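S.,

Sequence below, as promised.
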Amino acid sequence: MIASTTKYTLRGIPAFLMFAILSLKSIHQAKNSHGLIAIKIRFRDLRTLTVWENSSDLKAFRNSGSHLKAMKDSDKLGFNQSHTWYTEYIPDWSEAIARIEYNEN
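The prediction came back faster than expected:
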């Protein structure tokens, strides 16, 4: 399995509406994507955690549809941090957060 976590920081309040629309479309796409094992969303701090059967399924999601459009528009709205790793279990939030924080340093 492969896990991917993201943290998004908005540039300001006006960006929130567009970010929300893009996010909801991407979440819908993920939930209907082949190979998705788990998806967790933390709206309070704009984090995601997904687990996929393999890297091909993750890349197929990442590089298509609503998610691809969101990635193209994301620089206008804020700053994204992400980390991807192989795992044998579905990680919890504490691990996902630690991996992004460790990746920053």
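Residues 4 and 36 are 11 Å apart (CA to CA).

Coffee later?
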